[in-house]
Every structure is written in C-alpha cells, then in structure tokens.
Automatic annotation (TrEMBL):
It holds the Pfam family p450. Keywords: Membrane, Transmembrane, Transmembrane helix. Belongs to the cytochrome P450 family. The chain crosses the membrane at residues 6-28. Residues 457-480 are annotated as: Disordered. Residues 463-479 have a biased composition (Basic and acidic residues). This is Cytochrome P450. The lineage of its organism: Eukaryota, Fungi, Dikarya, Ascomycota, Pezizomycotina.
Length: 571
C-alpha cells in the first residue's frame, strides 16, 4: 500500500510552531507593563500582564482599603515617588507622597498638570455637565461662574449657614432620644451622620427639608426602652423609619460610583449599570423629576420677586445667576439645562459625602481623646457665654461669626488623621519633571494626602530635585514633629501671638484635606456648625473596645468601618 503524502512536512510544522511561539512571546512582552525609567516599582509586577492588580486585590480583601496600598508602595521602596501598574494595558500610575511637590503641582504647575480622567471615569455618567471632571478651559470656567455665588460669604452666612444649623438641630434632637432609649449603651451613629449631613446640604441646595432625620425622630419619640434591641456586642439597635423616595434615589446614585471605582473599565461599566439596573434607572428618573420640579419653583419665585431676598437656597442663586447672565448676553434664560442640573446635583452629593465622613472621624477621635473633647467643650462654653448661661444652644450667627482657634485646630487635625480624601489626582499635560524624574504626557499622578509626611515619618527628598517653584515655597508651610506625627493632637495647629493668645495656623504643617478646590469653604462651614452643636450638647463617652476600631474603608471617601457613640448630656 502506497504511503500517504502529508500536507505539511515535519520541518515546516516545526518552523510554523516556532513562529507562533515567537509571536506569542512577543505579544506577551508587548502586553506587560511599561515602567517609567528611573521611578521605583515592583519587579514582580512588571513581569506579569496584570501588574500590581493581584497584590492590590489581596490588600483590599484584607483591609477593605485600596489607597493605602498605593502609599505602601512608596514606603516599600523608601521613595517619595513610585509607580504601580493597576490598569492592564494602560500607563503606570505615579504615586507621590511628598506634600510640597503635591501642593506645587496643584497650585503652581497648572500648565503642566490638570484634572485627571480618573475622576471623569468615576463621575461622568452621573453628571456629564459637572465641572468636577472637566479639564481647565472655557467650558470649565463657565461652570465655575455659574456656581461661583454659592461660595460667597453672603450665601454662606445668610443662606447656607441657617439651613445647615436647622437641620443639625434635628439630628441633635434625634440623638437625645437615642440617648434616652439606649440608657448608657452604645449605638451606631454612622447612618445618622450620613442622613444628617444630607439633610443639611439638601436644605442649603433646595431651601426645604427632605425630612429623613425628622421622620426617624418622630418614630423614636413615641418609644420606650423595651422597644429597642440590644445586640450581642452590647450595641443598641433602633427601629428605622421609612426613608423618603428622594433620599433613597440620591443615595442609590451616589453609592453607584463604587461600581466605577472597583471596575477595570469604570466609565463603560458604570454607564451600562445606570442604563440597565432597575434600581439605578428608577433613581435617575426620581432625581431628574426632583431637579425639574425645584428648578421650575425657583424660576417662579424669581419672577415673582427679583430682589435678593428671593434667594433661599443654592438653587435660587444659580437660577438668579443664569437670569442675570442671559440678560447681559441678550438671550432667553435657560435655567433648566444639563449643566445646571449636573452642577446642582454635584453640589448636593459632594457636600454630603465628605462632610459625613469627616464628622464620623471627628466623633471617633474625640471619643478616644477625652482630654481634647473636654478642652474643646470648655473652649466653646467660654466663647458662647450667653448661650451657656441661658442653657441654650449658640445661635447660627454666633457660630458663623466666631473665631475659635481650638475648634479650627480640632477640625483640621481630624482632616489630617482621618484622611477623608485619600488622594488628589492630576494628569501630566506635557512631559513633566517630578523630583528629578520625567513623567510622560498623559500619565496620572496620585498625590497621597495621608501617609509619609502627613501622619507618618516623611520620605526624604533631595532639595535640588524639586521644581524651582517648590524650592521657592519651602518656608510657606511647616513640618510636623516626627516624634508624635501619628498622634491626634489639635495643639500642633496653634501658635502663640505676641499677646500670649493662641492662634490657628493653617500652614502649620502638611495637609491637603480637599485638594485645591473651592468647596472647602462650604465643607468647613458645615463641619463648624455641626461639630459645635454635637460637642455642646453631648459628652462622647468611651465605647467598648469591640466597637472602637479605627480601621478604614475606601468607598467614595475613606470612611471608618465603625462609628459608635455612647452619649451623656454635656451639662
């Protein structure tokens, strides 16, 4: 029987196999991370397609945090600048832990660095017309002008302040009821703080009450101790009132940002979720109807009364600003646009999330550091002598106009130690130099605002490697004493005047709680009012060790995993 001729000879098959193997190896190497020359990185991560992703996922499973992983890479390499590979097939992320260079980049090197698409990936789908993710330019400046009046002293003191104050008092009354029902036991305060912060910024945004906390107060006011539950850990659980539809919608949308935060394709993944997930589709519909209803009402108020006293909220102010701009430009006013809606929704969400998180950290630090809490309360009592003698709360005018260095120091120390905003991100617009290393155009730079130099021993930098503007700013901020840098100590922010008084020094040492953004002014006002009323009315007693963990959790902000209170009356 004749032998059958094979279509491929053995040598040909071998050659094809070798070629395929070579191509495979080439593609594999092409897919590996491309380190930026000179910047420290993990060699093991650079030799796998997923880069640092496996290590970061393990870190997150063990700690529920991700930004501390970035900090740990710089510490591991003992360098204030490092790089990680967390976006397969993408550019490395540069990690910067040096305060002075970070401040320099955000405030003086704006032609070299601008907002990163990282924030666009997180927030674009929720608010494509919001300035938070826009690059600097004419559109961004127009949006800043639209919202500019909401950061004015007049709006802060006369509109936002009173609205925040009224909402805060409702939370104080709620905690008075919880203190009565808990009878000396601890309870989880994190939900109350979140709802209270949203109530406050809602009132400032819309000029009305959403009613989340007041409904809970109404429910608990009619209960006795037998109707609450004592858990195995000793904490008390209370019945919960039904939340308003608007509150549920806003929180559902706000929390959906975590979809983008935890996805390798954040913008696409989040966008599909908003279009396909029934809960998110419903929440967007409620949100759009809510904004339209309030915008129409604000426009009608403006038509009825074009004087300044028509302004009762941020929404009124924005509608008034649009009417003025339209009149100057000779066009019809467009008060209900994508830009207006997205800016107002961003004002609402951003003002709620960071404030709630910072309050939770503040409560934890004051609970742990009883001496600081007592000193702050005594300082407030001395400042608001009229209210103390009358057995009353200080008025909103008294709080807003007050100058209390120890209160400012306590709030700033809470920012420093709590790390509500873990990182500020900028993208290199050009090939730029950071600490002697060239950063390619388009690279994201994550400037860590907690870690070395902030709450831990700083990583040393050769002064000659700094930018010229950074060198020139050397003496504009102090540095923290290393021996107690990790300790909660408000006194570090105070300096003595020639008269022997204490004065708050915002430049006492490294801190970047809200980056270089303008909304810090509103957040500071909220914190000043709310924390004053809490410390004025309650003693924050020590909580049991199982309820006192300081472990964090990375969500939209860096939140404490536990926030329990054990209250007593402060008088």
């Amino acid at each position: 029987m004749a032998s059958q001729q094979l279509p491929w000879s053995l040598p040909v098959i071998s050659i094809v196999g070798i070629c395929l193997l070579a191509v495979g190896i080439g593609l594999y190497r092409l897919a590996l991370p491309k380190p930026i020359p000179g910047i420290p990185y993990s060699v093991d991560s650079a030799n796998r397609i997923l880069g640092d992703v496996p290590d970061a996922l393990k870190w997150h499973r063990e700690r529920s945090e991700i930004f501390t992983f970035l900090t740990a890479q710089a510490v591991k390499h003992r360098s204030p600048i490092a790089q990680v590979f967390l976006r397969p097939f993408g550019k490395p992320w540069v990690i910067l832990t040096d305060f002075r260079e970070a401040q320099d980049i955000m405030t003086r090197r704006t032609r070299e660095f601008d907002r990163s698409a990282f924030f666009g990936d997180l927030f674009f789908n929720l608010g494509p017309g919001n300035q938070v993710h826009m690059p600097t330019g004419d559109v961004w400046r127009a949006h800043r002008r639209l919202m500019a009046d909401t950061m004015s002293n007049a709006f802060m003191n006369d509109v936002a302040g009173p609205q925040i104050y009224s909402s805060a008092l409702v939370m104080i009354n709620l905690w008075s009821e919880k203190m009565r029902l808990a009878n000396g036991q601890s309870f989880d305060a994190s939900v109350d703080v979140g709802k209270g912060a949203l109530d406050a910024i809602w009132a400032a945004t819309f000029g009305s009450e959403i009613g989340t906390t007041s409904e809970q107060l109404k429910l608990l006011s009619g209960l006795d101790e037998s109707e609450v539950v004592k858990n195995a850990d000793g904490a008390i659980t209370f019945p919960s009132a039904t939340d308003p539809e608007a509150f549920i919608a806003i929180m559902t949308l706000s929390n959906s940002v975590e979809i983008a935060l935890n996805s390798p394709i954040p913008r696409l993944h989040h966008g599909l979720a908003l279009k396909l997930m029934p809960s998110l589709v419903s929440a967007r519909k409620v949100k759009d109807q809510l904004l339209k209803r309030h915008l129409d009402a604000a426009w009608e108020r403006l038509q009825d009364n074009e004087k300044d006293d028509a302004v009762k909220s941020a929404m009124d102010l924005v509608v008034q600003r649009e009417a003025i701009m339209a009149k100057k430009e000779g066009r019809a006013a467009q008060y209900d646009t994508q830009a207006v809606r997205d800016e107002l929704f961003g004002f609402l969400v951003a003002g709620h999330e960071t404030t709630a998180t910072t309050i939770c950290w503040g409560l934890k630090f004051l609970t742990k550091h009883q001496h600081t809490q007592q000193k702050l309360r005594s300082t407030l009592q001395a400042e608001f002598k009229r209210a103390w003698e009358d057995g009353d709360n200080p008025t909103v005018a008294e709080i807003v106009k007050s100058n209390i260095p120890y209160l400012d120091a306590t709030l700033e120390e809470t920012h420093r130690c709590g790390g509500t905003v873990s990182s500020n991100v900028r993208t290199a617009l050009v090939n730029a130099n950071i600490l002697g290393h060239w950063i390619p155009k388009g690279t994201d730079v994550f400037m860590i605002s907690s870690g070395p130099g902030y709450v831990d021993t700083p990583l040393q930098v050769d002064e000659s490697e700094r930018s010229r503007s950074s060198q020139d700013s050397k003496d504009k901020n102090g540095e923290w004493e290393v021996t107690d840098i990790g300790t909660f100590k408000p006194e570090r922010w105070l300096v003595s005047t020639e008269k022997g008084d204490s004065q708050f020094d915002p430049r006492a040492g490294p801190a970047l709680p809200f980056g270089a953004g303008p909304r810090r002014k509103l957040a500071s006002l909220e914190l000043k009012i709310i924390m004053t009323l809490i410390v004025w009315n309650f003693e924050l007693k020590p909580t049991p060790p199982p309820l006192s963990s300081f472990a964090g959790l990375d969500k939209i902000t860096h939140v404490p995993q536990q926030c329990y209170l054990q209250l007593a009356t402060a008088r």
